[in-house]
């Protein structure tokens, strides 16, 4: 039952329950409206307490209903909020758990609010590309003041109830059960015969509102170039200085525009995609994770040290092993330097630095890893080295320990076969810097058992990583796709583009960094090593020579002071290189290509559709379970613009028919052989479907 009512001495306590977060879906809205009607029709009832069951007051409107008929079906959220505010019998919201979005807006419509200390309240709508659309932009400023309300609404960040104590939002903050306190408060106010206040009747006061709003508008505009929601939040909050109904009209208009914006659809796709990624079809809640109380890490280099920090930050002890005291000392010093850097910026305290370093045990002896529940190797990317390490881990690790490789390109099944326990082996592919990047590719080996996967997903949540499961293939999901993206970028140089034009086009599309600046940052020699391996393993895959020539010129990137660009010492600013341009022009000549003007649109299409086409193959092969997993990988690991929702979502918005048509055009041009469309793309485009349609699961993966 979504809504239940119990009576306490003339007070109706109305509890709504809609796991997992008490979203205000249609059933809850209907139940609340009916309960309020019943209370107002019952002379034995003198007041109403409204509260959420479970650990949330409410996570807000049910965003799964958005852009469906249920979202607006009466009683919609406005109807329920009007019913609360116009109730003849006073209503008190009892907030025992997080109240967000429409949940807080529901509480703002009540005459009184009582919150338990430790709860959080917020209006996070801006994070999914909309604005509070049920009166929050008008009532919150009347409760907590213009500035606090604007900051909460534009940032979308929840605030601890204690921080709003005395603000006029809460009539009481209590240690215990807010329902008990709400019943008592209502009884007192009814007995006193007080008129029951409505926030809408208050005025918003500010010494110099226009000056504050002008300053806020400038700051918000600068910080939200591609996002239409924040400026509209400012407009709506600014309208709270006007009569209530006028302000509501501004809010409503903003909400209507934003809910249909491509940016909001993309952000909602990412919101649900990140949560869907944590679900593995054949690993249900019945599969219990193994406990991970201690972690062992082999390799104290950049990756090993970064990985260790994730666990230390979560309070999990780590034993970290190196092959020499000097390498070990260097690794430990780097971790301490990182923490002290964070402390200098005020992100952590000096005490936390010592607390975390105190959980770290450096060692040269594999025996020290024997009691670890999870062992992660982050050593050199060579099979021989991995084989040596996994052989030793297999020999010392306790029964049931999980052995993980951080490899970014080697075959996880082949590594698992270096041990007698392949069922306990999987890949945990962290992205550099490992203590910063949110993405974690969890690579499922052919023999990896389900509780090992469940453990990996639970550990990812503990160390605050966004985990995506990948099958075993060369490059898993992210790197396999980025290789096609980079390949097209070098082909464009052969035809007429220069690195700076390609980077500029991709950064205008929204990538944090274009492919050539990214290569110079990561090191062009890394991709060079992979191509050398490819020339042997995959002679069918063609590459432009310019990337190899660049490396043969010793232009590895920032670390060598020159790459696709030139760099001044100590300065990361990329400067176009005459030497590189000469090499590029020479290459076009050698290929007999007459260089041509290439549009930014063609650059963007060829690079993004290269991602999409490879993503379609990854879906077909079941390497990724769903298209949104691929989008999550690109949003959290590769700087794909969030307001476009990821490569597969972007292709869906363009229309797969149009994507395929563009690919067929490029197939008739230079390097046309690299534009063979994935069968899944052809199938979906031909049937008018999208990658992210629920039914678009490729047969292979669905089997
Ligand atoms: N609607 C529908 N489902 C939701 C939801 C929501 N508002 N919030 C969470 N879920 C699902 C989520 O997809 C996941 O599902 C499960 O709940 C647990 O979520 C008019 C219109 C509330 C802090 O933006 O911030 O009100 O994967 O893993 O870590 O102005 O969820 O299990 O199937 O995140 O404990 C405004 C969004 C809505 C809040 C809980 N509210 N949610 O975090 O669990 S718009 C929001 C969150 C609105 C009004 C407007 C978090 C959380 P599944 P979870 P969690």
UniProtKB/TrEMBL annotation:
CDD domains: crotonase-like (cd06558)
Organism annotation: Luteimonas wenzhouensis
Residue intervals of the 3-hydroxyacyl-CoA dehydrogenase C-terminal domain: 475-567, 603-689
Pathway field: Lipid metabolism; fatty acid beta-oxidation
Keywords, alphabetical: Fatty acid metabolism, Isomerase, Lipid degradation, Lipid metabolism, Lyase, Multifunctional enzyme, NAD, Oxidoreductase, Peroxisome
Record keyword Transport present: no
One record GO biological process: fatty acid beta-oxidation
GO MF term set: (3S)-3-hydroxyacyl-CoA dehydrogenase (NAD+) activity; enoyl-CoA hydratase activity; isomerase activity; NAD+ binding
PANTHER family with a match to the protein in the record: 3-HYDROXYACYL-COA DEHYDROGENASE-RELATED (PTHR23309:SF51), 3-HYDROXYACYL-COA DEHYROGENASE (PTHR23309)
Keyword check for 4Fe-4S: no
Main location: other
Catalysis performed (reactions): a (3S)-3-hydroxyacyl-CoA + NAD(+) = a 3-oxoacyl-CoA + NADH + H(+)
Protein name: 3-hydroxyacyl-CoA dehydrogenase
Pfam families reported for this sequence: 3HCDH (PF00725), 3HCDH_N (PF02737), ECH_1 (PF00378)
Location(s) in or outside the cell: Peroxisome
Chain ranges of the 3-hydroxyacyl-CoA dehydrogenase NAD binding domain: 295-470
InterPro entries hit by this protein: 3-OHacyl-CoA_DH_NAD-bd, 3HC_DH_C, 6-PGluconate_DH-like_C_sf, ClpP/crotonase-like_dom_sf, Enoyl-CoA_hydra/iso, NAD(P)-bd_dom_sf
